[in-house]
Amino acid sequence: xxxxxxxxxxxxxxxxxxxxxxxxxxxxxxxxxxxxxxxxxxxxxxxxxxxxxxxxxxxxxxxxxxxxxxxxxxxxxxxxxxxxxxxxxxxxxxxxxxxxxxxxxxxxxxxxxxxxxxxxxxxxxxxxxxxxxxxxxxxxxxxxxxxxxxxxxxxxxxxxxxxxxxxxxxxxxxxxxxxxxxxxxxxxxxxxxxxxxxxxxxxxxxxxxxxxxxxxxxxxxxxxxxxxxxxxxxxxxxxxxxxxxxxxxxxxxxxxxxxxxxxxxxxxxxxxxxxxxxxxxxxxxxxxxxxxxxxxxxxxxxxxxxxxxxxxxxxxxxxxxxxxxxxxxxxxxxxxxxxxxxxxxxxxxxxxxxxxxxxxxxxxxxxxxxxxxxxxxxxxxxxxxxxxxxxxxxxxxxxxxxxxxxxxxxxxxxxxxxxxxxxxxxxxxx
Length: 430
Description:
By secondary structure, the chain is α/β, with parallel strands linked by helices. Among the domains are: 49-183, Leucine Dehydrogenase, chain A, domain 1 (Rossmann fold); 203-354, NAD(P)-binding Rossmann-like Domain (Rossmann fold). Helix content is 44%, strand content 16%. The model is unreliable at 1-16 (pLDDT under 50).
């Protein structure tokens, strides 16, 4: 194993926490780097983020008093282009989580071969307990604290957990006020009227669909013959389930944060999502049995798509997973310890850094459209996305076969190889 004291120092939970996302990313990086025989100098550079920014954000709350929030922006790598990645608002945001997600963005962009590096941001807050005015003031102050570090050629934020089009519009406006002219390309995931791209909201779920379409061919299945379980019902899970339902897949289970519903004969997904929208929960939906989120993962099916959050499949439940294909719509839903169990049990994994890369791919399309001032039709966006996802899927499978490794390891090896090549060609200014 290649040693790097600096990297080891950063691993604050070294080998002790299966569910620490930075640990999960680091372990997979190390395995892939070792198999590649990565040059120790390149390893030392690529193993750690380029920049970690911590800011304290004073916000005048509606009560009139000032509350100070803690926020982060981690820029992992710039070898292939500007940093790219979302911003999340949540009470449990941690620096380790943001570091891991920024690294995953680097590898994700490299796997689908778009010219970005990885970045990620977050603020420790509870957005459900904040007014729209408080959220706006927090977002604008956070943006102003990062004003020297973001921009179309530096770092391009996007929506993530508990952030949306409105959040991006505030960031764009704040940045533009400082620049003294409108800069649409500073963020992606904006409203279409402000330079956003058609098809962006559905892109991650649609990318999952395109990957599943390719994966079932390996098992000689058609959509009509394929049973699907989806964990999650948001922009990834809900849209992914809807799109798969439309293409003829039999979606037999779906969940929200409180639990899920199951019917072995298939669920009417449009009705289920309409019910969820109206009632804020799937509980009580007729024509299906109630299941917990943990039970849902263990339902026998052809395709399991965890599209909710990290660490859903661990060493504790991996042996109970009964699917042919695992399509990781969420970031980091499977821990490294679970990987080996799934591989030994013959589960074909579409790793997260490919399966959910539809979002960043269309974000790239949005950035391109903003910079040239010409916008594509939605069918053009979707066609370009399909071409990119299908090509990346087949390239990954070829790489896995060539190097006789599982698809997760292959994805990391392919991504690291591309970033390493660009880093080597540019040289290291040190």
